[in-house]
UniProtKB/TrEMBL annotation:
Entry's transmembrane regions: 6-39, 51-70, 82-103, 110-128, 148-169, 176-199, 211-232, 244-262
PANTHER family reported in the protein's UniProt record: MEMBRANE TRANSPORTER PROTEIN HI_0806-RELATED (PTHR43483)
Topology of the protein relative to the lipid bilayer: Multi-pass membrane protein
Localization (cell): Cell membrane; Membrane
Principal subcellular localization: membrane
Keyword Transmembrane: yes
Membership in a protein family: Belongs to the 4-toluene sulfonate uptake permease (TSUP) (TC 2.A.102) family.
Domain of life according to the entry: Bacteria
Keywords of the record: Cell membrane, Membrane, Transmembrane, Transmembrane helix
Keyword Nucleotide-binding carried by entry: no
Name the record gives this protein: Probable membrane transporter protein
Length: 263
């Protein structure tokens, strides 16, 4: 039985590279991996999916921040867009965590699987307005989109990249800048969602070393190494860019969905 905590920093390194590369904060792979691992660390299987989602959101705060900073240094974050989306992301993240706490773990798992497949199809086959470069989407519509992105992100345990990136690409933003902007948005989503999972979980939801549904050894172990690995992913994203980056994103989502189906 795997009963050592070194697996969480290892997982964090993988998540960090994916955060910088795909703008997702590593959330999807974290949820899938933690759903497998947490029962081996004494967490009841009925609570494992909730704990996986909550711990993923907590670690995303740090992973996405590292990724966003790396992209910012390369001019890859559209801060006016982030500012317009942030209020909606906070509201949506909080409301989504409230909904997730009330749902059964199996319902959450199938929701994550379905979401992965839909997002993969959107990235692989959906149309876009080109690679743009100077487009900076702003306005109330971006704020409204933030509510939906924040809510769904909290329910499936991600930083919102698999929604924010396609939205920005559709609005005409270059793929690599969409990834950077998504990383910054992921920080906002992570804070609001993790707070919701920590505060609104039932009393005694997890054993020791937890705050609500946030399992601290997993969240901290992942965060420490993911912060260090995210800049590598950012460099890869700027090297790959464009359509190839979107294809990588789509394949990755299908793999994650398959891993959850096998659970």
């Amino acid at each position: 039985m795997l009963d050592q905590f070194w697996i969480f920093p290892l997982l964090g390194a993988v998540a960090g590279v994916l955060a910088g590369l795909l703008g997702i904060g590593g959330g999807l792979i974290l949820v899938a991996a933690l759903a497998w691992l947490l029962p081996l660390h004494g967490i009841d299987r009925d609570a494992a999916m909730h704990a996986a989602l909550a711990s993923s959101m907590a670690s995303i705060v740090f992973t996405a921040a590292s990724s966003a900073y790396a992209h910012h240094r390369r001019g890859g974050v559209l801060w006016p867009t982030v500012a317009w989306m942030a209020p909606g992301l906070v509201l949506g993240g909080w409301l989504g965590s409230l909904l997730a706490v009330a749902l059964d773990g199996d319902v959450l798992k199938w929701g994550v699987i379905g979401y992965c497949l839909l997002a993969a199809a959107r990235m692989a086959f959906g149309g876009a307005r080109g690679d743009g470069g100077d487009v900076v989407p702003t306005g109330p519509g971006m704020g409204a989109a933030g509510v939906g992105i924040g809510a769904l992100s909290a329910v499936v345990g991600i930083g919102g990249g698999s929604m924010t990136v396609p939205l920005l690409v559709w609005r005409g933003v270059a793929a690599v800048r969409a990834v950077g902007t998504s990383s910054a948005c992921g920080v906002v989503i992570g804070v609001a969602s993790a707070a919701g999972y920590a505060i609104n979980a039932p009393a005694g939801a997890l054993p020791a070393h937890a705050v609500g549904y946030v399992y601290l050894p997993a969240a901290i172990g992942v965060a420490v190494t993911s912060v260090l690995a995210a800049p590598l992913g950012s460099r890869l994203a700027h090297a790959i860019g464009g359509p190839a980056l979107k294809r990588v994103f789509a394949v990755f989502l299908v793999v994650v969905a398959g891993s959850l189906l096998l659970q």
